[in-house]
Amino acid sequence: MNNLDIYNQLIHYVSAENVKQNEPLSSYTWTKTGGPADFLVFPTTFEGISGTFQVAKQNNIPVTVLGNGSNLIIKDGGIRGIVMILTKLDQVRLEGEKIVAQSGAAIIDVSRIALQHELTGLEFACGIPGTVGGALFMNAGAYGGEVKDVLESAVVLTNDGKLVGLSKDDFDFGYRSSAFAKKKMCVLEATFRCQKGNPEQIKEKMDELTYLRESKQPLEYPSCGSVFKRPEGHFAGKLIQDSGLQGTQIGGVQVSTKHAGFMVNIDQGTASDYIALIQHVQKTVKEKFGVQLETEVKIIGEDL
Fold first, then answer.
1. At a CB cut-off of 8 Å and minimum separation 6, what does 167 contact?
2. In CA terms, which of 68, 95, 167, 181 is 20 to 30 Å from 222?
3. DSSP SS3 for 196
């Protein structure tokens, strides 16, 4: 099967304007790095997602599912097969005190919708830059709250193509981990259970968390968000800072001078620059403090 045949199969399920070939992924990641995808698909329906998986199975090529590329480094060689970005699957609806959001919706937008309807529980998400699907994958959290605290149910496509509804007993949440990631499920929709709250208090909390994020994080540069998981008994940023690594630069990527837990693309950095800097930081912190930093950021794709 040649690429034209695969392309024609894909546009049967997803409109031609939402299928691209040999598309650089640097346009779709927060680091502004990443090589090309053989096929890049933007489904707008659940049927489009299911159909894309069918095409991949029929042609024996892999599928990589992405959200908005916020906590992600894609290597400079890009990704083979089909890359599916779900940001056009972004509908959100209210069901009483529950919010039902499709996987491509921004979790920040979901938290704002909760505020508009005087619902509390999602304030912690007002500064998390990822999509709903990404938030479920990572059990995203900030400032004392996590997805596991509010997620009631989810609809997923399993890796064998079945549409399945999941509830709390199925999520297997841990620190920055979940059954969705472990079992390579494609999240289609999530239902969050909130409670009625005082809108002034909800807004005050969200304003406070937004201020903390904007004042402490280097939002003025492209970055992949928090690079490392929090090591037990330590804070990654403090270990990096105490190792004298703030400002360290490889290629165009620098350990942020504003927050040592972040790495920023200040001068046309590449994914290889990011990976080299991550490895340098891990090695230095291990030598100085005996702590092995584990990456929170996901690194995927192929080397050049």
1. 152, 153
2. 181
3. strand
pLDDT digits (tens, 9 = 90+) for 102-148: 999 999 999 999 999 999 999 999 988 889 999 999 999 888 899 99
Q: Say how far apart CA 169 and CA 216 lie, in whole Å.
A: 36
Distance CA 50, CA 54 (A): 6
CB neighbours (10 Å) of residue 300? Answer: 16
pTM above 0.85, yes or no: yes
One-character DSSP codes across 90-117: --EEEETTEEEEETTSBHHHHHHHHHHT
The CA-based dihedral angle spanning residues 236, 237, 239, 240, taken in that order and rounded to the nearest 10 degrees: 120
Q: What residues act catalytically?
A: 176, 226, 296
Is the Cα dihedral 110, 111, 117, 121 positive or negative?
A: positive
